[in-house]
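Design job #97: recover the sequence.
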């Protein structure tokens, strides 16, 4: 597929190329990922609504011969573009006069995306659209929706890139803690908008196994503590949900540098911990100066040009590192993976308020993502929580995060399909009894709090979809965690929905909030006790 030309005179040809790429996923562009141009044609003052049938699914099975007429109403009308071969477009409706979609088009399909779209067809995963509630009404429609700050930041990366990265902060549970689902989201967005580095990293892994995509390249002498532990650890957490305690003198984490001009160390200033030393290629750059007052602190440092290795070293036992930030001074996407195994909205109450505010303000994200609901539905099944608590604690988390990052968009991603505990081998799998109730509760809270919502359960195919993933070999034996291309596909569904929402903003109506924030439930933490969840 060739790069889409989004000028008005070539819209239909561009859409034909898009559909060709959807129908023939093996024929992707050979052009390497890059930022794609926007048309310079100004938006019209008023955009007519799409005609009935204008926004139809681009499903490979449903539309093997779809043509350009299926998604446009005329030379002057906005396109309603499906995000992938497996993702249905949003339903037609009264268009917003802002007509932002007239300036946007999907980036070229990557080779992996084409393969995952074909897999989605085989697994009957239809994809889905993001629900993006309207937060501010104007005279002629919705002036600002929940995802407007993020979509506007994407526009800036294309039109006037500057030198500032667009940061996404992704909180969640074990579904994303392995960093594969969000890897796909990160890489798909970077393919169209550029990448600006790694963002928030850990000084060591959260367990003695797994990859090091989120951590130092080499490390020793650290003990991880996470907010997902059964018994609350002795210290609260920063936004990573993890801290590493030095268990020996000279505990060290070594990061391979990738041309970053500066870095930031987040650390906990605890009594008797001693100093942390920051050095590059054997030369000391700075040392922390503890006050031993228990506060979360930040130490920033410049990195010399051409530096290869960054070391964070504890002079003595007891030093605590919350995270290390490494990114570039250039436009592009940075996605901070902040997921923790066993996490749910209740356990995120273990984030320290001062650290949450300071660290999110430093990161200045344009999108807050929350991948939650799987552990909530399991704990509902175990009768260790209830729906009012699930609602209350999610609302509290969203409010805290949004207060710390008021310029950010916000989106909740619901849980994937799940089956009941105690399933007998060889017998049909039974859906987890509280799954759909948990999804509905999350959706209602997200929309009431002014956040978008993406129904991952419906996007992957709803009830029975986990069984299809399992039969295809994409689930671990616990029947809780996907693996391999199953994880990749879930990430593709999320990135497809975000890109489609960006392209379609202004071409379809944004739903109003289901209730005001004042009517939402009380935000007090529930005090529920955590339990071990895979």
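Job complete. Output follows.
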């Amino acid at each position: 597929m060739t790069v889409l030309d989004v000028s008005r005179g070539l819209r239909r040809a561009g859409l034909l190329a898009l559909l060709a790429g959807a129908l023939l996923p093996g024929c992707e562009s050979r052009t390497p990922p890059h930022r794609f141009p926007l048309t310079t044609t100004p938006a019209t003052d008023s955009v007519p609504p799409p005609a009935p049938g204008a926004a139809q699914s681009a499903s490979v099975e449903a539309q093997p011969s779809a043509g350009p007429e299926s998604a446009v109403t005329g030379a002057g009308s906005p396109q309603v573009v499906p995000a992938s071969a497996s993702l249905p477009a949003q339903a037609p409706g009264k268009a917003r006069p802002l007509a932002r979609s007239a300036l946007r088009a999907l980036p070229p399909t990557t080779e992996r995306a084409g393969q995952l779209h074909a897999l989605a067809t085989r697994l009957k995963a239809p994809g889905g659209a993001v629900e993006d509630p309207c937060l501010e009404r104007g005279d002629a429609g919705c002036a600002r929706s929940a995802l407007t700050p993020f979509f506007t930041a994407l526009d800036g990366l294309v039109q006037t890139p500057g030198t500032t990265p667009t940061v996404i902060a992704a909180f969640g549970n074990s579904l994303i803690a392995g960093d594969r689902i969000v890897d796909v989201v990160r890489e798909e967005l970077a393919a169209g908008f550029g990448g600006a580095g790694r963002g928030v990293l850990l000084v060591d892994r959260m367990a003695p196994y797994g990859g090091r995509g989120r951590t130092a390249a080499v490390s020793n002498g650290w003990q991880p503590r996470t907010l997902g532990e059964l018994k609350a650890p002795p210290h609260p957490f920063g936004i990573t949900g993890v801290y590493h305690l030095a268990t020996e003198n000279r505990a060290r984490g070594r990061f391979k540098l990738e041309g970053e001009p500066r870095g930031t160390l987040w650390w906990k200033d605890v009594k008797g911990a001693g100093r942390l030393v920051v050095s590059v290629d054997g030369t000391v750059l700075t040392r922390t100066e503890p006050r031993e007052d228990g506060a979360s602190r930040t130490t920033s440092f410049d990195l010399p040009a051409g530096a290869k290795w960054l070391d964070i070293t504890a002079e003595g036992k007891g030093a605590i590192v919350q995270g290390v930030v490494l990114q570039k001074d250039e436009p592009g996407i940075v996605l901070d993976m902040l997921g923790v195994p066993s996490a749910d909205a209740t356990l995120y109450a273990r984030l320290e308020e001062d650290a949450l505010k300071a660290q999110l303000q430093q990161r200045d994200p344009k999108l807050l993502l929350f991948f939650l609901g799987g552990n909530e539905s399991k704990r509902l099944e175990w009768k260790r929580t209830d729906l009012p608590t699930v609602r209350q604690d999610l609302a509290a988390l969203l409010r805290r995060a949004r207060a710390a990052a008021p310029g950010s968009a916000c989106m909740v991603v619901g849980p994937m399909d799940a089956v009941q505990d105690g399933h007998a081998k060889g017998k049909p799998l039974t859906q987890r009894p509280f799954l759909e109730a948990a999804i509905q509760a999350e959706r209602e809270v997200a929309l009431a709090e002014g956040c978008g919502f993406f129904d991952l359960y419906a996007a992957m195919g709803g009830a029975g979809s986990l069984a299809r993933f399992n039969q295809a070999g994409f689930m671990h034996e616990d029947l809780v965690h996907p693996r391999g291309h199953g994880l990749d596909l879930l990430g593709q569904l999320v990135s497809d929905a975000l890109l489609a929402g960006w392209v379609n903003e202004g071409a379809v109506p944004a739903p109003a909030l289901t209730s005001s924030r004042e009517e939402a439930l009380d935000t007090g933490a529930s005090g529920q006790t955590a339990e071990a969840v895979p």
